[in-house]
Amino acid sequence: MTDRHTDAIEEAYLLIEAAQGHHDAARVEAADREAIAHSWHDVRLLLHFARSLACLDAGLDDTEHVDAMLAAAVALDSPALLALSLAVKADRRARNHRNTTAAGDSASRLLAQAVVLLDHPSDEPVVHRAAALIQVGSVAHELGLWELALEYYERTRQLMAGDTSPTGRRQSRVVAINELDLSLDWAAGLAGIGDWPTRTEDFADVTDAEWPPIWVVEFHGNRDLLAAVAGLPADRGVPVDERVATLSDAIRAARAGDAARAAQLAEEATEDFPYQLPTHVYLLQLALIAKRPGTNPTAIRYGDELARLRWNDRLDRMAAMRDAIAVERRRQDHEQLSRDVVVDDLTGLANRRGYQAYLDTLGNATDHGSYAVMMIDADHFKTVNDRFGHDVGDLVLVRLGHILAAQVRPADLAARLGGDEFVVILAEVLPGVPEARAGQILDAVRTHPWGEIASGLTVSVSIGVHHGSRAELPALLSDADRSLYEAKHHGRGRVAITAG
C-alpha cells in the first residue's frame, strides 16, 4: 500500500465522520475520482459508506450505496470490509423494519455473517477491521443485543490500543460515545422494569477539542442521564444542556418516589431535545409522564407489563442470536472444509479433485460449444529447486498460480494437478481465443519480476493446447499433454496447439 493510498483511506474515514451533519459532496466526489484513477476499490467502498450516512441524515434512501459497498467488498475479497458492509445492510434492515419480525430475522442473519467474518485475525489495515467491529456493535445495539454490542466495543478498544493516527483517534471517539449510549440504554431499560441500577461503569469525560460539538453535547448529556438513572450525583462541572438536566432531575425525582414532580419535569423535557435519546431513555421518560398521580392504576400496570414483556423478548432475541452465530460458524466451517477438499493449499487453484469435479459438472451439461485445454509446465523446475531451494520453488508455484488465476473467467478452470503441472480449461471459446490466452500467459510469466523472489531467478513455461467439443473433454487432457511435449521438444518457453 502506497503512502498516497494510505492518505486516501484516511480522507475517506474523515468524510465518513463528517457525513452526518457536515457532508461535503464535492469533496467525496473528488476523492472518488482519485480512487477510480488508482483502482483503490477499498477507498471507493468507504466513500459509498459516507454517501450512505449522508442519505440517512437527509432522510433519503441509501440502498444504492449499501449495495455498492457489498459488491465492492465481495470483489476485494476483504473479510473486514465485507463484515462492515453486511453490518451496514443489517442496520438498515433493523432501522426500516423495527416492528417486522421477518425483517428483523433478516437483519440478524446478516449480522451473524458479519460476526463470523471477524472471528479470525487478518492482515488487513487495522482501521478497516475497527470500522467493521464498531458497525457490528452499533447494529447489535440497534437490535437490542446489548451483550453482543458490548463485546464488540471492547474488542475495538483492544484493537485500537496505542493507535494515535487521526483515523484511530476518530474511531476511539466513536467507541467512547457508543459505549456510553449503550450503557445508558441498558440502565434505562432496567429502570423501566423497576430494577433501578445502583452502580454503572464510570465514564470519565474524554471529550476534547477534536470532538464534533454535537458529540460533546450528547456525551455530556448521556453521562448526566446515566448518573441520574444510577442514583449518582450529577457532575455539573461540565456543561449540560438545560433540557437534559431537566430530564435528569425528573429521573432523580422518580427514584426518590416523587411521581408528581417526575411527571412534570419529564414532560417539560420533551420539547426540542438536542439529540436523539437512546430508545429506553425515551420510553422511561414516557413512563414517568404516564405515572403522574391520578393515572388509572390499571393503565400503569398495563405499561409495566409491556415493559417486562419487552425486556424478556430482548433476552430471548439475544439467546436466538447466539444460536444464529453458532449455526453460521458451523456453516462457514463446512464450506471451508468443502473448499479445502478441492483447492490446492499452495496456489489456491483447484487441485486434481477440483479438476475432476469440474469435468463431472460439464458432463451433465447439454451444450455442444467449443472448449480448449491447456497443459502448462514450468521449464527446468527441478533446476530451480536445486539451485534456489524448495522454499523458492514453492514461491514460484504460488506466483504461477496467481498468473493463471488472472487469465480465467468464472466459467473456466485453472488447476494444479501436482508438482509444477497445471491445467487450464477454457469454456465456450471463440476461434483464436485459446492461442491469444496462451500467448498472454507466456508473456505474463516471461515479464514477471522473478528477481523479487531470488536474485538471478528466471522462469518460463511451456504450454500445450488442444481444442475440442464438450463431448471430447475426457480425451482433451491427454491430447493437450502431447501438445505440451511438442512445445518442450521444440525448445520450451513456447506454445504448441492441436485441434480435435
Could you walk me through the main structural features you see in this protein, from its secondary elements to its overall organization?
There is one protein chain. Helix 2 (25-38) runs antiparallel to helix 3, helix 5 runs parallel beside helix 7 (126-142) and helix 12 (259-268) packs across helix 13 (279-290). Strand 4, helix 19 and strand 5 form a beta-alpha-beta unit. The chain has helices spanning 3-22, 25-38, 41-58, 63-76, 79-96, 101-117, 126-142, 146-160, 166-192, 213-229, 242-255, 259-268, 279-290, 297-342, 352-363, 381-388, 390-405, 433-447, 473-489; strands spanning 370-378, 413-418, 421-427, 461-469, 495-499. It has a 5-stranded mixed β-sheet with strand order 2-3-1-4-5, sandwiched between helices. The protein is 65% helix and 7% strand. It is an alpha+beta fold and 500 residues long. This is GGDEF domain-containing protein. It holds the Pfam family GGDEF. InterPro entries: Diguanylate_Cyclase, GGDEF_dom, Nucleotide_cyclase, Rev_trsase/Diguanyl_cyclase, TPR-like_helical_dom_sf.
Strand content: 5-15%
Order of H and E elements = HHHHHHHHHHHHHHHEHHEEHEHE
Give the biggest sheet: 5 strands, mixed
Gyration radius (Cα, Å) is: 30 Å
Helix content: 55-70%
Tally of DSSP helical segments = 19
**Overall mean pLDDT:** 88
The poorly predicted ranges are 99-104
Q: For the terminal residues, how far apart are their CA atoms?
A: 47 Å
Query: How many strand elements?
Result: 5
Structural class by secondary-structure content: alpha+beta
- With strands numbered from the N-terminus, the spatial order across the biggest sheet is 2-3-1-4-5
Shape, please? elongated
InterPro entries: Diguanylate_Cyclase, GGDEF_dom, Nucleotide_cyclase, Rev_trsase/Diguanyl_cyclase, TPR-like_helical_dom_sf
Domain GGDEF: 369-500
Organism: Actinoplanes hulinensis
Protein name: GGDEF domain-containing protein
